[in-house]
Design a protein that fits this description.
about 425 residues, mainly alpha, Amino acid/polyamine transporter I, 19 helices, about 80% helix
Length: about 425
């Protein structure tokens, strides 16, 4: 093992890993896709996919970094020095750069609405006024870019303190705060007349709305929500210093936490929309048009808006900090660059992609397709094939310190057979 900085404890790893994945898929997309695909029917299948595929795949990704104590590219070279599989490390790196860069408009919108919730800028507006508020802000591309730059500077201000005093410390503060915020919002919203209709919709399965397309959506959502193939899990695995750590157990804790995060996000949003008799919109419209209208319709709406966008920003911020740290960790190891210069160097391509994504809506849409449908799918497939057939699954199990015979069988079947097939199905489904 090398002497680079690692996490102070396994809980540091778990919290940082949860933070990395949380903003990427759980809060932003989960409530809408659950609503569209049968509520609890979707949630039940989603849980099954994470248990069968998600936990073993995350265990494998973390184990590669944990076993080698290296980050991605060098980790692959260490295990399979005579193969070209180290190229997969560059795909993971590309996935990380793209997710930080092309999602810049989303980070900017969240930051803007956090500020606006404190100032009350969208409170009291008519439904058309709420739409205009969002459209006018998004049309001012220089302002959108400025808000993203501020967010990036805040990321850098955390990263310069290192792994333990920066990334790990901020995760230990912000994630419990986010959990408390979600509980306060849920309790407040469930007191509204009609809110329980949203709870019933979310928790009562409607399999008539769940079909083959729903299954593919569920598979994609699981991979996206767990942040798999985005470099972080492998890099953070190399930060774990206790050689006896049970990686499967830690990965299970992360995955189960993210299931609860998705369900809690649904309980924050769907009952609120039902209580205010508004339509459940997708993505951007749900978060920045429907919900501001809902805040305008209830007593204490401004307080709820502050809590909601604060929580939303915490999720986004811990995610961006986690991905950024993974990139910096790889760059400092691979090129022997000191931390602060590496942080600043990595900001350049992130800002470049962000600029393209913000100033051209078509670029945002294209990069979203490239990242979600190609880069992440190929990235996850590479991890599964490497773990199951190049490194060999029994070596993954041994490196992960797995003792349970049941879990060993679970890992073998999932990584060697189920996961590769599932990923191929996700990839091919976009062409039919």
């Amino acid at each position: 093992m090398n002497n680079k900085e690692g996490f102070s404890s396994i809980w540091g790893f778990i919290l940082v890993a949860i933070g990395l994945a949380l903003g990427i898929g759980s809060l932003w997309r989960f409530p809408y896709v659950a609503y569209e695909n049968g509520g609890a029917a979707f949630i039940l299948i989603y849980i099954a996919i994470i248990l069968i595929i998600g936990i073993p795949l995350m265990t494998s990704e973390v184990a590669i970094g944990f076993h080698t104590q290296k980050t991605a590219i060098d980790a692959y070279k260490s295990i399979a020095p005579n193969s070209k599989f180290y190229l997969a490390g560059y795909i993971h790196l590309l996935a990380a750069f793209l997710i930080l860069g092309y999602t810049a408009p989303i980070y900017s919108w969240i930051f803007k609405y956090l500020v606006s919730s404190f100032t009350g800028s969208f409170m009291g507006l008519s439904p058309d006024g709420v739409v205009s508020f969002f459209e006018n802000y998004n049309a001012d591309k220089s302002k959108v870019f400025l808000f993203f730059v501020i967010n990036l500077v805040l990321n850098i201000s955390v990263l310069v303190f290192g792994v333990q005093k920066g990334v790990e410390r901020i995760s230990k503060i912000l994630l419990p705060a986010l959990f408390a915020i979600m509980i306060i919002i849920i309790v407040s919203i469930l007191r509204l007349p009609g809110a329980m209709d949203g709870v019933k919709f979310l928790l009562m399965p409607d399999f008539s709305k769940f079909n083959v397309s729903s299954l593919l959506t569920c598979l994609g959502q699981a991979f996206f929500a767990l942040g798999l193939g985005m470099l972080g899990s492998m890099v953070f695995g190399s930060y774990i210093k206790d050689p006896k750590e049970n990686i499967f157990k830690s990965s299970s804790t992360i995955c189960i936490s993210l299931i609860f995060a998705g369900v809690f996000a649904g309980l924050m949003i769907l009952p609120f929309v039902f209580a205010t008799n508004l339509d459940v919109a997708e993505g951007v419209n749900l978060s920045f048009i429907t919900l501001p209208n809902a805040f305008n319709l209830v007593v204490g709406g401004r307080f709820l808006s502050i809590l909601f966008y604060l929580g939303f920003y915490i999720a986004a911020f811990t995610s961006s900090v986690g991905v950024y740290e993974a990139i910096v960790g790889l760059i400092t190891e691979k090129h022997d660059i000191k931390r602060v210069p590496a942080i600043l160097i990595c900001a350049i391509p992130i800002l470049f992609v962000a600029y393209l994504s913000i100033y051209d809506d078509n670029t945002f849409a294209i990069l979203d397709v490239i990242e979600s449908n190609y880069v992440l799918v190929i990235s996850c497939f590479a991890i599964a094939i490497f773990s199951g057939y190049i490194w060999k699954i029994d070596n993954v199990i041994k490196a992960s310190n797995i003792k349970s015979n049941f879990v060993k069988v679970w890992m073998r079947v999932s990584i060697k057979y189920i996961t590769p097939v599932a990923i191929i199905i996700i990839f091919l489904s976009q062409f039919f």
